[in-house]
Amino acid sequence: MASLEDAALLDEVRHHLVGGDPVAALAAARSAIARTPQQADAHYWLSSALTANGEAEAAAVALDDARLLHAIGLMRDMGADVVKMSQSPDAALEVANALYRERHVAMASVAFGMALNQGERRRDTLLSYGLSLQHQGRAEGAIQVFRAAADLYPSPAAHQFLLFAHFHAKDGIARHAAEARRWAELYAVRAPEPAFANRPAAGRRLRVGYVAPSFAQTQVRQFMGPVLDSHDPAVCEVFLFPARADGESGWARPVSVHPIGALDDKSAADLIRSLGIDVLIDAWGHTAGSRLGVFAHRAAPVQAAWLNYQQTTGLAAMDYTLHADTVEAPGMAEAFVETVWRVGPTSAPFRPDGAAPTTPAPAIRNGYATFASFNNPAKLTDETVAAWSRILKGQPTARLILKYGYFADPVLRAVTASRFVAHGVDPDRIEFRGHTTGEAYFAEFGDVDLALDPSPVPGGTTTLEALSRGVPVLTLDGPTFYARTALQIVAGAGLDELVARDWDDYVARAVALSADAAGLQALRERTRTGFATAIYRDEAGVTRDLERAYRGMFEAWEGRLARTG
Prior knowledge:
Blueprint: H1 4-19, H2 22-35, H3 40-52, H4 56-77, H5 82-87, H6 89-101, H7 105-117, H8 123-134, H9 139-152, H10 156-165, H11 172-187, E1 206-211, H12 221-230, E2 236-241, E3 255-257, H13 265-274, E4 279-282, H14 292-296, E5 302-305, E6 320-323, E7 339-342, H15 362-366, E8 370-373, H16 382-394, E9 399-403, H17 410-421, E10 430-433, H18 438-443, E11 450-452, H19 461-468, E12 473-476, H20 487-490, E13 499-500, H21 503-514, H22 517-532, H23 539-564
Parallel strand pairs: 1-2, 1-4, 2-3, 4-5, 5-6, 6-7, 8-9, 8-11, 9-10, 11-12, 12-13
Helix pairs in contact: 1-2, 1-3, 2-3, 3-4, 3-17, 4-7, 4-17, 6-7, 7-8, 8-9, 9-10, 10-11, 16-21
């Protein structure tokens, strides 16, 4: 236990950092480390002070030390035999897997590291370790681990973990595009182009197929459900190709279900071709359960990527990727192997779960504004943390709620708090919340005055859920197509004042909005109305846009076929 003198030293570090004197804070932090080198708190404060003084590399080392000391202390308190873990990779792995199951990803990463340091190299261990890093926002570390896994255990599934990790990395779009092309070179078959006998589109329904592990039981259901319920039977004959048929019935419009989970890629492609599918849509991308290998076999004359995976698949056989008009950004075309097909002001409809209760702006009862983000910690980039810190400093009475399942981990909470402290934010102003579901989850939106969208990796479903509960969301018109994906959500609800031009504008808008409780209430009411009338709430209208896109793509194929004879 730290002495009163040690505690006073840490309070001094805190006082100087929050007070804007990073030089004095660093001196006090170094004194604290000299007195208690095994105390995790001292290393957290040292990391914050080093960051505040621009010493990024030294700060990273101090943060690693803090994370290690903190995790080992907690594991010991939980009854883990840390000595045995350091001598037995199996013992370390057992603890790591138990922690990971409880969403304690930062603690789990330390235990996984102990196992790997003793020679543990199994595929699943490497993938779990990489995920534990990725979920903390340690993208570069995750990329290194996933690359090792892909090299040691080459397979399309293992390599896909490496692709996804690039979403949260610096220059992630360009690096992801290169890695996706590499994935395709390694694992996509070079099958001969089949001859298709699909009839001309004029005067008949198109046969449209969708591929995903499940359409009713995964994160795509709130987007797929409205489309499947709204497809015009006179325009499209709809086919679903899930892993299993269970649960894939009950849609409002006729749908033909053909499970392909038991089929290899070639057999699945043969089945799809035998059904005469005109346009085949991948709604899943490079995530677990992917069937992109089916598309590599050219299962339909027109193949397109849509919905769950908004970056390139890397597949030459994928003709198009479907995007909203609002994501257009310089260099976008070069990031895709596919041709970008713009489907209109929004790329998919959204159907919220349950009825949204009406709650007043909490600033009215609290007397201060509450900001929040319910996004994955992996999205809390350095730019995002810096901007949100500026907002908190500009609104000294405000609070910030960070909510996600992984914040059950006390180490991740401490690491995240230290990042804000480095920018002069008192950690007591940040509240961490863990996983909740159903009505308990939705009720927590009632505690939020203004949700803050991270960048350059913005929110998606969480942003829609916030708006559906009347919570305004401030987003950034970022420099890349991926950073702009939330524009269709916020601007699509008629809330243009919540789209910032740059980080300075973002901070200024947040500070101004949060200073007026009555204004926050009025904004809350407009958010409810805006969401109710948003373009993506017009399920039939968005589906008509998709149907026009499908027909346009198929007619383009017909034109190419006619020109080549």
